[in-house]
Structure formats: C-alpha cells, structure tokens
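Training component of the fellowship. As part of building independent skills, the fellow (R.M.) carried out the full modelling exercise for a liganded target. The chosen ligand was manganese (II) ion. The inputs are recorded below so that the supervisory panel can assess the work.
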Amino acid sequence: MEENRAEALRNELFMKNEHASKKITAEETAAADNFCEGYKDFLDAAKTEREAVKVTIELAKANGFIEFKADRKYAAGEKVYLNNRGKSVILAVIGSRDLEDGVKIAAAHIDSPRLDLKPNPLYEEADTALFKTHYYGGIKKYQWTAIPLSLHGVVIKKKGETVEINVGEDENDPCFVISDLLPHLASNQMKSTMSEGIKGEGLNVLVGSRPFDNTDAAQNVKLNVLSILFEKYGIMEEDFLSAELEIVPAFKARDIGFDRSLIGAYGHDDRVCAYPALMAALDTDTPEYTVLSVLTDKEETGSDGNTGLNSSYLKFFIYALADCQGAKGYKVLSNSKCLSADVNAAYDTNFPEVFEKNNTAFVNRGVVITKYTGARGKSGTSDASAEFMAEIRELLDRKNVCWQTGELGKVDEGGGGTVAKYVASLNMDVVDIGVAVISMHAPYETVSKIDVYMTYRACYEFFND
Ligand code: MN
Ligand code: MN
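Fellow's submitted model of the complex:
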C-alpha cells in the first residue's frame, strides 16, 4: 500500500522531463518529420538574412499576404507583410478583437554567424587571389578553415543597380576555402590557445590562382579574378565598397543518424525558430488577437542597426497598424505578448562539465522555455515574469505541446542574449522559447526534428488561442 502511495505521489508531484516520444504518437512523429522536409528546403534556399526575407515574402504572397499600406482599415482575416530594407520582415494576420487588446508576436532572427567580406577584400599574394573577411557574430575561427564555402549577397553599383551573387551552392558551381596548416608544420600553432590558433586576419578566402595572361605584369591573378567578375556581373573592384557579401558554409541540410531523427545544417540559429514562426503565421486564418511573425536581422551582433530589433521598426509598424485601425499605438504595445523564438544550448555528452543538468535543455524533449538569458548575475536579460511563464506552460500543456526548460549552461560559465530585452523595452510580456541546438554557432549545427515541430506547434497554438 505504502509503495503504491509513493508511486502515485511520484507521478503527481515530480516534474516530468523526458524524451518527447513518450508523450506523442507515431503520427505526430511522422508529422514532425514531414514538417522538417519543408524546413530543410528553407535552410538551403535562405542562408542569409536577405535570402530569408525573399523566400519568406514569396511564401507569404502564395498564402494570400499583401504588402502593408498604412492607408486603410484592415478587416479580420486580412494578411499583410512589411519588408524592412530586404533584411527583416514582419507578417501580420489581422484578428477579430480590438487591436488595443494587444497583438501576439513570435520574433526570431534570420542572420547567422558568418564571414563578411571587407569593403576592400580582393588581393593577390604568392600567385593566389584571396578575399579579406571580417567575421560576423560569435564564431570559433578554427572551425571555418578547410571546409567548402559559398559566397552570397548583393553589390549595389554606383547608379543603384543591384547585382545578386550566389556562388557555391549549386553542385556545378565552384566554391571557396580558407587554408589551415598541415599538422607536420603546426607544432607552434598546436601549442597556442584555440582562440589564437587561427586569427581574425587569417580568415582569408582562396578565390583564384591563374594569371590573366603570361606576362610578368603585377597582380595578374587578381586581374584574372576581376575580369571574370566583370564579365559575369559587370562589377569592378570599387563596387565591393557598396556591397554586402557573406561567406557561409557550402553544406546542404541533411538528416543525421540511422533513425534520421536529427538535422545537420548551417545556421539553425535561428532559422530553426524563424521557419516555425513563419509557418505558424501562414497557417493562421482569422485569429482572435492580431498575430505578428517578426523575422529580424542583426541579432548575432547585438540587434543594433535599422534592421535589428533595437531599431524602432517593429514599434513603428504597430503604430502604423494602430493608426489604420483607429487604435492607440501605446495601448497596443502595452497589451501585447511575445514569444522571443531563439535557440538554446542542448546538453552535449562530449562536454558535460559546462551544463547543470537540472536546468539544461536536451534534444528531443520539445520546445525549450528559457525564463532568462544574460551573463553572470543575469546581466542584460529580460527575465520573464512568473505570471507569463504560468500562462505559457498552461497553454502548452493544454495543447499537448512537448516542452522543457533550460538555462544557457552553468552559472558563470558564460552567457548570451536574445531579442527578448528589446521586445520587453516596448512594455510587452515576453519569454524566450525555441529549439535546443548541438554545436551552436558552428558551421554545421544539429537539431532534433521533433523539437523543430514542437516549436512550430508552440507558435501556432500561441497565435490561435
Ligand atoms: Mn539566436
Ligand atoms: Mn546565435
């Protein structure tokens, strides 16, 4: 008898933190796998913030979204998008309630750590042509050598013409590479720290090695590269000054594991939340509250800049929508709620020492709710309120969405931030939710398909509750 009582109490009182497969049906697992086929296509088609905006708007238009114009009233069920400079985008589905009751937002970022070309990138040395780069976001520099790389971005010519560049993704394209030292000659390099082994100024990308002609003229290999670029894109060396060209891994998204339960890809952080937020908006018809999916830029460098969430573009969009609907913008903001959808670190069996197991996310345990981020004494965090945490866990339980909680590693082990604090500065309730990632910020990151799907379901149920 006593044993049974203990067992009953154990079931009732203990928090259950277990593999999602214990809670979901085979059909739901199949739905997760199916959802992730679309996600993998998105990963391959949208490796940069500009490409993600382009793909998002194409999908939105195909699903009945029209460009937002601040010149009329919108009816419930209408769907609009706002393109902020081609690098961030807001999708909105108008709800049936008064806008002043607030909106529901899912915000994710579409920039990922990478190498940007410097404004004057091309040079020749020892009969090879190379690009100088400046890394963007938090990277471990040694991970970017000796892997195939592709080049994405735009060049804006002096008269305003835009040239789009995407080289290295098609299997018939050439790709690019950064050299690393052979072990035979690396005895000094191997003694240096991992942050010193490859230096920022050592991240130079090999882009050519044949001269333009057989004369002894200076910089003949560089001339050959420029000549190819001029022929293909009509650009000259000076045009690099007005360009945003990004070096990213040339890998495609692939299933990982014999059971195909995981996905390996570049830039899960944070397209693994952007895609669920996008799909949740596309699948929402006439919600009660107006819903917004915000896919933003510049999170990896601190959200500064006019396409990041430390700019006023989200606030101004809500003000503009409020004007259209005859509502007061500050009331809309103050009554709004947001899921800041971003990744968290997954427990890694190769590095158990940095995690505190009771407060760490694990792959396959569902969407992670992260109450606070920050570093040291919660510095730079938007700590979600107990009230909002209660609301979200009640919602996820009621809708059978598998969830877990997680903190970014042990106290004082490091830290990080998300867009949550910039959303919170608009006087909204906000909490971080998202996918647990293995090898976060590496050129090739790994996530669980079930977790991606549960993040979609969290966004969708939040929008449609
Ligand atoms: Mn992120
Ligand atoms: Mn990140």
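The panel noted the following from the submitted structure. The two ends are 42 Å apart (CA to CA). The chain has a mean pLDDT of 97.
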